[in-house]
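Exercise 7. Predict the structure of Ribulose-phosphate 3-epimerase from Streptomyces caledonius.
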Amino acid sequence: MAAQIYPSILSADFARLAEEAKAVEGADWLHVDVMDNHFVPNLTLGMPIVESLSRATDIPLDLHLMIAQPDRWAPQYVEAGAGSVTFHAEAAAAPVRLAREIRAKGARASMALKPATPIEQYEDILPELDMLLIMTVEPGFGGQPFLDIMLPKIRRTRELIAKHGLELWLQVDGGVSASTIERCAEAGADVFVAGSAVYGAVDPAAAVRTLREQAGAAIAAAPWACDH
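Solution. The predicted structure, encoded as tokens:
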């Protein structure tokens, strides 16, 4: 169970995205937040920027779609260069069909849950996914403090993954830093989105390595990983 670190370009300098992507070489994936000012009260970059970014870096792109109508738009983001596309359970009209369409186009399919959305009602569709994202803040803005009350939800999700014997990555996003990443890993996460903790550092690439080491050590000592 290797820890993966996904720097979030929401915390990068949007005027220098190609350079900011190069600054985190060695990261596992690059996390790209797409917001439409409908599903969340914020507006960020869209498909043309994703296309340009995919040409500017060799790091695979992990798209997090915080948008309305992901059933319509998610497949197009695969065509724009995304290697993984995350849609929100709260916004998708047909999550199983959408996950299968994303996979059919050659990308990893992922589903995100807002803090108040329980995991249990989605247990039956977990085999249709490559990754599940547990939001540890309310989606929409970077720099929010980590919600400790999400740790039990991460644990329950890891238990469901083990119950069904799935090779499903469990991602957390929101307030992930040197002071919170070990708790997330101990609870069951193995993929970590980090924004300001990476791009706010003097050396972003070194921050990625440090976070990965912290998470890896916590996973190695975690009961859920020892039982796997």
